[in-house]
């Protein structure tokens, strides 16, 4: 008799066998690139490995499409961030350009910051960006956002806690 822990993995394996080709084709039609589609299809299945009860998935293709859309959105955001960084690097004189290793570290850090900022509520994110990028004082941020100074302080504390969690 199979162990209870191997049952979900068997269900995922069946889901993979039955639908991987379809999902990869679906992604290929959206991306126009078979290699990226293969990577994102694999990422989609990696993401669903954590599903507690794969048998509860009633419509596998709808479920896979939903998960794949999230993976695709994250991938597109990462690509846009990378393009923007590389465009900024292209403007630097050659001696000041970072090494490929440094570029990879910076890109990964930028991606982590982007994910952290995206997880913040909009008002917290806006207050944080006004403070950190625009150098605004808390009183000015409060006036800009139409909230109290206490709210801005609370927003900033929340943003800094998220930043510290990123570092840990």
TrEMBL record:
GO MF, any single term: sigma factor activity
Biological process according to GO: DNA-templated transcription initiation
Pfam families per record: Sigma70_r2 (PF04542), Sigma70_r4_2 (PF08281)
Domain RNA polymerase sigma factor 70 region 4 type as annotated: residue spans: 111-163
Keywords: Sigma factor, Transcription, Transcription regulation
Protein name in UniProt: Sigma-70 family RNA polymerase sigma factor
Alphabetized PANTHER family for the sequence: RNA POLYMERASE ECF-TYPE SIGMA FACTO (PTHR43133), RNA POLYMERASE SIGMA FACTOR FECI-RELATED (PTHR43133:SF63)
Family assignment from sequence similarity: Belongs to the sigma-70 factor family. ECF subfamily.
RNA polymerase sigma-70 region domain boundaries: 15-80
CDD domains (UniProt xref): Sigma70_r4
Classification via SUPFAM superfamilies: Sigma2 domain of RNA polymerase sigma factors (SSF88946), Sigma3 and sigma4 domains of RNA polymerase sigma factors (SSF88659)
InterPro entries attached to this UniProt entry: RNA_pol_sigma-70-like (IPR039425), RNA_pol_sigma-70_dom (IPR014284), RNA_pol_sigma70_r2 (IPR007627), RNA_pol_sigma70_r4_t2 (IPR013249), RNA_pol_sigma_r2 (IPR013325), RNA_pol_sigma_r3/r4-like (IPR013324), WH-like_DNA-bd_sf (IPR036388)
């Amino acid at each position: 008799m199979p162990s209870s822990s191997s049952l979900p993995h068997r269900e995922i394996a069946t889901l993979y066998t039955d639908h991987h080709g379809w999902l990869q084709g679906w992604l290929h039609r959206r991306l126009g690139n078979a290699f990226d589609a293969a990577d994102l299809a694999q990422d989609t299945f990696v993401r669903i490995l954590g599903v507690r009860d794969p048998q509860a998935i009633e419509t596998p293709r709808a479920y896979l499409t939903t998960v794949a859309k999230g993976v695709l959105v994250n991938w597109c955001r990462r690509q846009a961030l990378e393009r923007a960084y590389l465009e900024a690097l292209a403007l630097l004189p050659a001696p000041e350009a970072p090494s490929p290793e440094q570029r990879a570290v910076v890109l990964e850090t930028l991606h982590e910051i982007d994910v952290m900022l995206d997880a913040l509520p909009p008002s917290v994110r806006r207050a944080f960006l006004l403070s950190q990028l625009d150098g605004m004082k808390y009183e000015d941020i409060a006036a800009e956002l139409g909230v109290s100074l206490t709210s801005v302080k609370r927003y900033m504390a929340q943003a800094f806690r998220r930043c510290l969690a990123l570092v840990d």
